Amino acid sequence: MGVTEKRMKEAGYEKDVALNEAFLRRIFGHAESLLSFDTYQFDDYSKIEQDRFEVEQKAARREEYFPQDCQRAFEMGVRLADGARA
């Protein structure tokens, strides 16, 4: 998500995610979500004119949290693949 976790909660996106999971659970029997916050939309923010994002904050968040998000995504993939074999 391009938004922060705080903004996601303020906008009520948690309810949307929960509804999507419930819908998918009814169809497939299992669903889970992985949310990654304040993600990059551009490879190089210096090449665009924008005043909506704090580029330094996004870069710091990406460096600290993105590897953890990738690990969580990998672990989710393992769980989903194991469930598919069951």
What does this 3D model show about the protein?
With about 90 residues, this protein is mainly α. The chain has one domain (about 5-85). About 65% of the residues lie in helices and about 0% in strands. It has three helices and no strands. The chain has helices at about 5-10, 15-30, 55-85. The longest helix has about 30 residues, at about 55-85. The protein starts with a helix and ends with a helix. The mean pLDDT is about 90.
What is the structure about, briefly put?
The protein is mainly α. The protein is built from three helices and no strands. The protein has one domain.
Which features would summarize this protein structure in a list?
mainly alpha, 86 residues, single chain, 0% strand
Give average pLDDT, whole number: 88
Which H/E pattern describes the elements?
A: HHH
The proportion of strand residues reads: under 5%
Number of helices, counting only DSSP H or I runs of 4 residues or more: 3
The major beta sheet can be summarized as:
none
Write down the domain tally.
1
Distance between the termini: 31 Å
SSE layout and pairings?
Blueprint lengths: L4 H7 L1 H16 L26 H31 L1
